[in-house]
Design brief:
By secondary structure, the protein is mainly β. It is built from 2 helices and 12 strands. Helices cover about 10% and strands about 65% of the residues. The relative contact order is 0.13.
Length: about 240
């Protein structure tokens, strides 16, 4: 029953997005594409696509994120995963806000059909460069092989960005989801970007992602790390 409830809530949030956002307001964000192709002694290809869009209207803020990664070597699939999130924030003071977030992820090689994390929380904008968030979330992991898992977690987050020079920018986003049932069970994801602006619209981007699962499926490593480079378009 809990599994179906989380799916219904997720669909309601996603399906209702066009109605709660302001169609007349501008969106800001970016789209990044990275790819490589090798031949000779090693034959393979890889592509990564990611994007972010944000809209701020008065005291309300809407944020959409998505990413897709695919790679193969010697005609064998080696990477295929995707993730996305939607977050709605409403500011109750100049710096404090209430939020509702849903995150979805699928990863064949981590034995994940679909992971869904959905829940409310609160956030605080410590400065223009730093914000922190905390809340509760329902965590549902639908696996390829084995038993599905559901539990309630805390949701802790931090977002930081800093202009190092006029053309170089650093971003970091950290999310931790500790289980409230088993305090030794948690997941962690840290995404760090180094961005070099060629112009107002175009940038080069290097991203390092660390993802940790304290209790992964059998045969799956606890820690995953990936480094990607791509071309980013800003809008």
């Amino acid at each position: 029953m809990k599994k179906y409830l989380i799916v219904i809530m997720a669909l309601c949030l996603i399906g209702g997005w066009p109605f709660i956002s302001d169609a007349d307001a501008d969106w800001t964000g970016n789209m990044t594409v990275g790819a490589n192709l090798t031949s000779g002694n090693t034959q393979g290809s890889a592509v990564s696509i990611s994007g972010k869009a944000m809209q701020r209207v008065d005291d309300e803020r809407y944020t959409i994120k998505g990413a897709f990664n695919y790679a193969e070597e010697a005609e064998q699939l080696t990477v295929r995963n995707s993730r996305g999130s939607i977050q709605y924030d409403t500011f109750i003071t100049d710096k404090a806000y209430i939020l509702l977030n849903i995150g979805l992820e699928t990863d064949k090689f981590r034995n994940i059909n679909l992971t869904t994390i959905l829940g409310p929380g609160i956030g605080y904008q410590l400065s223009d460069n730093l914000s922190v968030e905390a809340g509760l979330a329902y965590h549902n992991k639908d696996v390829v092989v084995g038993n599905d898992e559901q539990w309630t977690t805390a949701r802790l987050g931090m977002n930081f960005n800093k202009d190092i020079t006029d053309t170089v920018r650093f971003n970091d986003s950290l999310k931790i989801n500790p289980s409230l049932k088993d305090f030794g069970l948690y997941t962690l994801r840290n995404e760090a970007d180094l961005i070099y602006a060629f112009s107002d619209k175009w940038s080069g981007k290097i991203t390092h992602i660390s993802q940790y699962d304290k209790a992964p499926s059998d045969g799956v490593e606890k820690m995953d790390k990936v480094l990607t480079a791509g071309l980013q378009y800003n809008f």
